[in-house]
Amino acid sequence: MRGSVWGAFLLVAGLAVGCAGAPPPAPPVGEGSLTAPPPAVSTPTPTPTLPSGLTRADVEAGLLSRDVPQGGTGALVPVPGAVPAPGPGRVRTVRVEVEEGVPVDGARFAGFVLAVLNDPRSWGAGDTMSFARTDSADAEIRLILATPDTSRRMCRPLETYGRLSCRTGDRVVLTHYRWVNATEEYASDPTAYRQYVVNHEVGHALGHGHQRCPGAGRPAPVMQQQTLGLDGCAPNGWPYP
Prior knowledge:
By secondary structure, this protein is α/β, with parallel strands linked by helices. It has helices at residues 2-21, 56-60, 106-117, 148-155, 176-181, 190-205, and strands at 76-78, 90-99, 129-133, 141-146, 166-168, 171-175. This is DUF3152 domain-containing protein.
């Protein structure tokens, strides 16, 4: 009897020692965790700072500054590279050139021009025409952005005073003055003016002549000389609005 009691005592004591000295159980392995990790802290993406005096629309049109130098070197620099025509229909090739010294990002300017010309409201409406950009000398249309003095010289014998754009031969000459400042009627929406002047002057290169305002309050035809005034019409930059 005493042996049995003594054995039971040793068994209980051994179990107590074993429990007290056992290492803590290992945490489970897998997707779960006993302790949740701290939440991740997201860092907001900083908003790019626009150049002083420019809007995002200005930057998308290629402007680097609102400064308008009166004259430049006269050297016309083609924007390098080529962009294929995106749609069906007859393909017209355009070479975009920027006068050296004009504070414009050539690639952004060229992208803006091509986006206008390939808009479904532009001259290729109904998949009748599509525009490709090239830096080749054999382009059908040369679209040039130049200082007031250079554009005035290139547009002669038409007198533009550097404030009007023109088409002469295969050259569409846009004055940098209007690219920056638009007109009074377009002051609240210079992007719409830029769309208008691209479509208007390229329209001349495609053989279209001037039109008049059809009536007060109606959209101005894109071939109306809107830079000189709207004559009661509403601003419109598209051949097929």
